[in-house]
Write a structure and sequence with these properties.
The relative contact order is 0.14. Helix 1 crosses helix 2. This protein starts with 5 loop residues before the first helix and ends in a 17-residue tail after the last helix. The chain has 6 helices and 7 strands. The protein is of the alpha/beta class. Strands 2-1-5-4-3-6-7 form a 7-stranded mixed sheet, with helices on one face. Strand 6 and strand 7 form a beta hairpin.
């Protein structure tokens, strides 16, 4: 497919704002071309991700404790053939969960009913389920399916435990095809691949908070992070 150059598409847009200057319009139109290119690159990466070959088979007999009792890994899919998993930084060594994970999951709680139309969803942490459910109630979450990995074998196998026993957040997608469960994709951007001056993070960013703040002149700020309470 031959695409129209981004600069040409940007020039076609007719949006104008009250009292804008010529300097602002020139800079904004140039930025618009870059935004169009970014949109195209995001879609190109998504196409490359969707084209991945078969991932590694899941062979562990993982059992979790859900709010309604024990659940095997295959049951997390529900009626779907795709499962989205997030490992939550709320291990047994923590009195309170990670504020960054909590901010992310608070946004996901509102999206969960829509997401569950297309895929299974599981938020997994190593703290006991009663502790997870109590914080869920405190935070006002309504829709997130929480599971405790009390045996910790899933967390260990899929990189959610650091050598010192602390938590590592993981975002992963699994598939179930012809009765075989496989890892389709998992985030692999960590400290080793972080750019100078930036916190390790994946792309696209999973947090709507950062997407909004990236649209402001102050940006994300240096060293500012969400808190559990304000």
């Amino acid at each position: 497919m031959t695409l129209v150059p981004a600069a040409e598409l940007a020039a076609r847009e007719t949006t104008r704002w009250p009292n804008e200057t010529q300097d602002y319009r020139r800079a904004r139109t140039a930025l618009l071309a870059a935004e169009i290119e970014l949109r195209r690159y995001i879609e190109s990466v998504a196409e490359q991700r969707r084209a991945l070959p078969h991932g590694p088979e899941v062979t562990g007999d993982y059992v979790f404790e859900g709010e309604d009792g024990p659940v095997r890994f295959a049951d997390l899919f529900g009626t779907h053939d795709t499962l989205v998993v997030y490992t939550y930084m709320f291990g047994p060594q923590r009195e309170r969960p990670c504020p960054m994970c909590t901010s992310l999951l608070s946004a996901w709680d509102g999206e969960a009913p829509d997401l569950l139309q297309r895929a299974g969803l599981a938020v997994i942490a190593r703290s006991p389920i009663a502790k997870l459910a109590a914080f869920k109630q405190e935070r006002g979450w309504q829709h997130l399916p929480l599971y405790s990995d009390t045996r910790q074998d899933f967390s260990r196998d899929y990189g959610a435990i650091a050598p010192d026993g602390s938590d590592i957040p993981q975002f992963m997608v699994f598939t179930r095809r012809d009765g075989t469960i496989r890892l389709f994709w998992g985030g692999e951007m960590g400290a080793e691949s972080a750019d100078p001056g930036q916190d390790p993070r994946g792309a696209p960013d999973l947090m709507p908070l950062w997407t909004i703040l990236d649209s402001t002149p102050e940006g994300r700020g240096a060293g500012w992070y969400p808190s559990l309470t304000y």
